[in-house]
Amino acid sequence: MNNTAVKIHEQQRPSSRPHTRKQRKLRIRFTLGEKLLFLSFCLFVLYTAVHMVSNQVKIYQTNKEIQKLEEAIQEQQKQNRDLYVEVQQLSTYERILQKAKELGLSLNENNVKVVQE
Q: Where, if anywhere, are coiled coils annotated (predicted)?
């Protein structure tokens, strides 16, 4: 057989296995600009997340301080009410008269002046 006959013969011979295409993996290549854009987006998201968390921490601390101040205000108001009640009790007419007698003072009705507010 000469060379040409072998080539024709090989072309006509059916192949034993089906002819399949090799599937290439589709490889996506990003340009430098796309990579930079993606990197800047990731950095922006990271910065935003950190900024949001830090703001929440500041808000939490401020609320905590406000609650402490409100507690202190309520405690001071309670003390003020208690002292007001004590002042009212100590400034009764009977108590003042009793203290005056203990100190040796006497009540002279002619010397009493009424002051109105």
A: 59-86
CB 100 within 8 A of CB 93: no
Look at residue 10 and tell me if it is in a domain.
no
Q: Distance (Å, rounded) from C-alpha 59 to C-alpha 51?
A: 12
**Tokens encoding 89:** 């009790």
Residue reference for tokens 């009410």: 81
The tens-digit pLDDT sequence of the chain (117 residues) is: 566 655 665 555 555 555 566 677 788 888 999 999 999 999 999 999 999 999 999 999 999 999 999 999 999 999 999 999 999 999 998 998 899 999 998 888 787 777 887
In a domain? residue 62: yes
**Six token digits for residue 56:** 């929440």
Answer whether residue 3 is part of any domain. Answer: no
pTM: 0.53
Question: Residue 68 in 3-state DSSP?
Answer: helix
Is residue 8, in this structure, part of any structural domain at all? no
